[in-house]
Amino acid sequence: MSSKSLEDSATHFDKLARKNVRLKSLLQKYKQSHHLQHALLQLSEQASTVAELTLLYPAIHNILQDYIPSKNFFVVLHNPVYDNLELSYFADEKDGLSVPLKYEQYFKEGLTGYVFKQGKTSYFTKQQTELAVEQGLLKCFGTPAEHWVGVPVYRDKSIIGVMVAQSYEKDLSYSEQQIELLEVMSLYLATAIERVKKRELLESEVKIRTRALTQSNQALNEEIQQRKKALERQQILFKISELATLSENLDDVYKHVHEIIKTITYADNLYIALYDEQTHWLSFPYCVDEYNDTGRPRPFAKGFSELVLSSEECQVIDIDKANNLIKLGVVERPVDVPAERTATSWLGAPLKTSQGVIGLIVCQAYNNKHEFTQDDCELITFVSHQIANVIQTHLANQELKLNHQKLENRVAEKTKELRQANLHLQMQIEERKKIEQQLYHDAHHDSLTSLPNRSLFLTQLEKTLQHYQRYPEQQFAVLFIDLDKFKDINDHLGHQAGDQFLIGVAESFSHCIREHDLLARLGGDEFVVLLTHLTEQQQAQDVAKRIIEIMRKPFCMKGQCIQSGASIGITYSKPSYKHTDEIIRDADAAMYYAKNAGRNRFECFHPLLNASNVQHDADNMHHLDDLPMHFRSAEIITLDEQTRAESLLEAFGEHPVLGSTSFEVLKKFATDRVQHFEVELNLLKQAFSLVSDSKKEKVLFPCSGLVLERINFQALCKLLKAHDANRMCLLFNEQEIRYASAVQIENLKNLVAQGFSIGLNEFAKDCCELNLLTEFQFDYLLLSSTFSKRVLQQENYHLQLQGVLAITKLQNIQVIAKVPSIFNYRTLLDKHGLSLFIGKQHALAPFEHEAPSAQFITS
Known about the structure:
The chain is α+β, with helices and mostly antiparallel strands. The protein contains 25 helices and 27 strands.
């Protein structure tokens, strides 16, 4: 090769290298732009859903961790009142929250304060931080970070805080793109802070108002304190009154009263005196005195005690008043009593009862140890009334004891007579109780079946509805049951046979429900069931299936057998229910729909059943060919969100009452079977058109068993042969296949023989019949969401799932689970052996079709 050729090759390689470098640069910018846009979208979503700023910080932190090293992240805001940087959010691997709180100027004098003063983004390595500390630009608090980034937070043109991310690992540094992401985040943070500032202004105004209210209420608080003291004193008096009333031993009452009085006033010296009007003597049943504790009785004279008894009023006597009373001759005192044993303050109150004054209670003080006041007088007066009542009661009790002894002898003589009379009366009372119980039972139960009647059922339903309104999470359901062909039993076998049939049905129904559920007979051949404490709606349907299965057995009597059945309507609890008659109405409507749809089946209440009172309008709403239709597609995905080559395509209709509703629901309300088949065939044609434009290898499309009937099957085969049917799998509902006719089963096998792909939809929703998996050559099996949930709840469903997986593996059938789009939920099912799931639905683009009655729109 010549030198010129080598030079040309070198030049060419240099151009390619420069071009490669530029492409890498552009790719890096695109990734950064993509990351930034994704982060902003996440932040915008959080800002629109998070109601408080304290919840926004963790959301920003979680977003940042996906793009930058931000395990250590905090936000500080400036407080203009104290000129401090205050912590709003803090997360750190090494330093806990107590570290920044320990230092008063942790943020203001550190790296955060430096960024706040500079007003621009700063990036420090550990070495740069140490250098800045040595230069005196800032101080270092806590554990030094290997990489530290601080971004100022601005509102308008003023800085209001700093947002910081730091890393303790040398390898985890921050690029320019990551710092740019932090700066953009700070712009959105400032907008959220503005809302907080407005609330702070409002709180400041509230504080001003509160301060004014505090000053105005200060006087009121003082008054309350005074009343509180008065109440406490009154409670003490009540305690004395209660003690005096309940105690049986009078001596104990005196002692307890003395102890309680000592806690509220001076009562080291206290005595209680009783006055006998017949003998005119004073006795002292209780006396405690530091100079005289004997309390000897004495005749009525002219002392302080006699003054209280004569005036029948409380007396407070000090030395001056005592001398004045002596001068006036009202009181006479012994002359041989030493001065130190003469009371310097004396307090006495009369013991009053309804029969008069029976004595007095006295407190006295020596050597000026205490000075009694009017408050003490009020207290002792109240206590004296309580003691007087106790003494009067005690005396009366003594008299009652004597009378009681006399009566005991008379009672003993009458006891034998009363025992016989009492025994007879007791027998009459027991008989009356039984009659009352029987009357109550008869009033609330059906006389034939002994089940609760309409009255008791409505009462219990009202209580259940009220409980549900307080606790909406505790669901309930009502089943309205009407027996099929009951009139035939009465007509052919007689009314006695009809009664026996109702009794047997009631007993059979009671075995289908739990102990806390309620079964009642409304009348005739109508029964109702109230199911409470439901965790899912499927439980009510399971009860209905058990009842229907029981009613499949013929009723035989007198050599004749008549096949009956049960049409059941189900309605579930919902917030819109305000009265019990609404619940009964909806359950009854669902029952009539089940009866009109073929009997011996159940139907759940649907708003269409009460959508219109005008029959013409109701019929129009059930015309499927008048409803705008559209498709929704869902990817088949794995646990790690990887899409498969298959997808699920479902049809939806825009109903005037229900809105956008699945065709699987709408077809139940079709006006006739011909219309149903024409609409379904038209949808299948349009599905083929969508499949031809799709990049998926296989599209799963639900079909009803109607297409397998004899008059429709040829049209179906003609349509399948006219299109690329290899990319289409027809899904049939497991319940329809289970109850399919012989012609439908033969045509389903014929589809397989012609090379068309079929699948089984909503498998194991009611029961798990494994023989269906071996009877037909299915390519796909879609497990119902009900079965998937029960696999995680009950052990026996896990065992059923293992049987399903074993058979499908032998039959080479792909198993797909219908579950909520929750990662933890799918992870648990993956541990049970399920690996394919239905992804989120999305609407397809509008599709034009020659038939205006089935146009396609997005939802």
